[in-house]
Design goal:
Elements: E1 3-8, E2 11-13, E3 18-20, E4 22-26, E5 29-34, E6 39-44, E7 49-52, E8 54-59, H1 75-84, E9 87-95, H2 102-113, E10 120-121, E11 124-126, H3 132-144, E12 149-153, H4 163-176, E13 179-183, H5 187-199, H6 206-211, H7 214-231, E14 235-237, H8 243-254, E15 259-263, H9 266-269, H10 296-308, E16 313-314, H11 332-336, H12 351-361, H13 367-381, E17 399-409, E18 428-438, E19 441-445, E20 448-449
Parallel strand pairs: 1-6, 2-7, 8-9, 9-10, 9-11, 11-12, 12-13, 13-14, 14-15, 15-16
Antiparallel strand pairs: 1-4, 2-3, 4-5, 7-17, 17-18, 18-19, 19-20
The chain binds dihydropyrimidine-2,4(1H,3H)-dione (DUC) and zinc ion (3 copies).
Amino acid sequence: MELDLAIRGGVVVTASDTVRCDVGIKDGRIAVLGERLKATREIDASGLLVMPGGIDSHVHIAQPSGPGVEMADDFASATASAAAGGNTMVLPFALQARGTSLRACVEDYRRKAENECYIDTAFHLIVSDPTPEVLGQELPALLKDGYTSFKVFMTYDDLVLNDRQLLDVFDVARREGALVMVHAEGYDAIRYMTERLEREGKTAPYYHAVSRPEIVEREATHRAISHAELVDVPMMIVHVSGREAMEQIRWAQSRGLKVYAETCPQYITLTAEDLQGPDMDMSGAKYVCSPPPRDTASQDAIWDGLRTGVFQTFSSDHCPFRYDSPAGKLNEKGRSSFRWVPNGIPGVETRLPILFSEGVAKGRISLNRFVELTSTNHAKLYGLYPRKGSIGIGFDADIVLWDPNRKETIRQEILHHGADYTPWEGFEVTGWPVMTLLRGEIVAENGRIVGDKGQGQILARGFSAYAPHPLI
Ligand code: DUC
Ligand code: ZN
Ligand code: ZN
Ligand code: ZN
């Protein structure tokens, strides 16, 4: 067989193995692993790790975020940023606006993404209005079309579902074999805290963190677990921030429940103190995300969960807003109270370097665990395996070449996202992506985007390996 491309002399890392060998690629797929492979094109990977491209299963792109507020990324800038950060696939959300059809919303997002993406993309759904039509017809039909996971919210005025609605959505997931993702923070408790703080004149961005303490996340996490157990449906708790919620999940897992969990870079590197800024000022808005970052003890707890298997995935929750913009963090209402500061931080490009540096380089997790947490488990959980998520015969040749020794300082000026800042300005890392290949084609090289818009495809997904379809 004549190979199109051979990646030679690197160390191939998968979730299970670390092996020095060449990777042979034919027609966009991995065709052979072996020694001294010959091909029309060859890439010298000596001194580099050859890993499956990152899959970021939790990003927000071009998602409406309230009146006058705009996300900082479109599909082109978000996927370019992801590619430069070593990713070959992202899973953004198609958000249902209340009072509208879920199908119409999905088509809208697809139109925005079509021919704009540098890497592969597949959508989760966000269900905000579970009408009988949505539950009975739209969701089952969309699932058959490859939208096999959906997120529900336990907070936010425009998104929150009450307990009965959560149960009804869970029940559809159980019947159809979908994986539900849950944003677990309690709506009423947050509202109570927000109003109390505002009455006391505590409106700076920092109070965002005070308004949604760990108790609020713990309570909602426990409630979501109880509902999932009652319905008997697998569930993913996204963006877990600290010990309290994590202990609920560990308890559920120890009882054999199919409860999975995700955490993010902000919860191992930032704390609520970052929201204070130098002087309790507006610059704290740069770190406003939900759940908020906690404290260093929480970071230790999250590391414990990453090491011991409580968490299956490490995602960015990339949710980019400009800081210095009337359509971003400093919108007019946002200046009057933390309540109106859009929730979310940019991070799709820095996810892999942060976990590699803080995790692998500092000896907290193995290389194989790194690959599992950043790629393989995302593919398995969200119905993309065995096409994506590993380096093996028949997999798409989605690959990142990684320099484990390269030292970099994260700075806004080297990133490709649409935001005007990074929460990790000045953060020093060891380990950096030097080349990202999608189906054997180079998309990004040393911080330069060399691929084409439209090179990425919008994929339909199969069923989650973690939420087996009841019929099989
Ligand atoms: N939830 C997310 O998943 N992302 C950003 C904001 C939020 O609340
Ligand atoms: Zn979200
Ligand atoms: Zn969320
Ligand atoms: Zn999110």
